[in-house]
Amino acid sequence: MMICKVVGNVWATKKEETLSGMKLMVVQEEMPGKKAGTVFVAADAVGAGIGERVLVVYGSTARRAFGKDNVPVDCAIVGIIDSLEVDKESIQRT
Amino acid sequence: MMICKVVGNVWATKKEETLSGMKLMVVQEEMPGKKAGTVFVAADAVGAGIGERVLVVYGSTARRAFGKDNVPVDCAIVGIIDSLEVDKESIQRT
Amino acid sequence: MMICKVVGNVWATKKEETLSGMKLMVVQEEMPGKKAGTVFVAADAVGAGIGERVLVVYGSTARRAFGKDNVPVDCAIVGIIDSLEVDKESIQRT
Amino acid sequence: MMICKVVGNVWATKKEETLSGMKLMVVQEEMPGKKAGTVFVAADAVGAGIGERVLVVYGSTARRAFGKDNVPVDCAIVGIIDSLEVDKESIQRT
Amino acid sequence: MMICKVVGNVWATKKEETLSGMKLMVVQEEMPGKKAGTVFVAADAVGAGIGERVLVVYGSTARRAFGKDNVPVDCAIVGIIDSLEVDKESIQRT
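Structure tokens for the assembled complex are given below, as produced in the milestone run.
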């Protein structure tokens, strides 16, 4: 799971049918000690809002978040992070 | 889903049979605040045109966009982006 | 499998239902001869603790570690490394 | 799909049984405007030759190119590129 | 398939049950013309030894190398490279 922040919204009227009704959000990967991660679009399975830190799954796993295997979704928000605690003696900083 | 722009066309006469009839387009990843993303080929599921910004899925998910599991396609255009709104206070710029 | 170190914990109250009860840990990729690898979240299948070196699998394989295919987990800790021995004449250092 | 060039051959006598009879080729990713892409090995499904530009699929999709799901192949050449046309006003150069 | 060299061994007593009996080896990606590739762990399906050049598959494909879909293995050694021939006029060097 990637640690991401929700940074925006995206609208697409013309899209693959099975995507209708899905809430698509722009997210950015956020790594402790690093800046400006990858920006991409994920389908929201938990009701996340702009500015929240979230857990994002990728690949075939993203479809599992919606309980069906036929949605053309490869990134999904599956959790909203309450807190994240990193052990300063274990992590390596750049 | 990757945020991409359609930047070209590609033709391949000699190809795996099940690819026949598929519209293959050259796309480039486009991240807000970054330049010159990866260039690759995606099969179009929504009727996209050169210069349009699109949503691209990757991996096994790409096959879902065509409703069959046997096509040798690992990237698919699944939506045409109307608008994309990024919150300036949330996103980190390089 | 990635060679990682467990570097932290993460809490998410609001999450996809099937994630309930799973132990989520923050891990960092650790490559011999390199520093400050990628930081992400993995579900623990073996009872790992902070500071331990672990083996992490990615993608659809992560779901296999939990013996069910419907969990929205794309990274799993599947082993705790006792020792790792690298042949100095074979490995290339940066 | 990646845009690659076939750059070599590879031989492996001792290999997983189901790989027998497969033609393995060394390919290099080739992106318009970039140089010296990743070099890896792909199984050829279309009869490609050294120096040709090809379309390569990755992951579970590669197995689809051979019409069976049990081959341990994660990269496959699925088309030979006749021509590739890039719109100069749409693409971003490094 | 990645071109790798076997560079070490790894031991993990505490691990996911279905991994028992699998031979895990430390491998390093090796690209013609590049140095010091990624180091990771792969399960050996062909009896490879330290210092040998091997073909490694990734993702769901790695499970195919063991003929069962439930092993939590995402990287597998599927062939030992006898020889690799690269066409100097086709490959691009960094």
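Strands of chain D lie at 2-11, 24-29, 39-44, 53-58, 75-80, 83-86. Chain D has one domain: 2-12+20-80. Further analysis is deferred to the final report.
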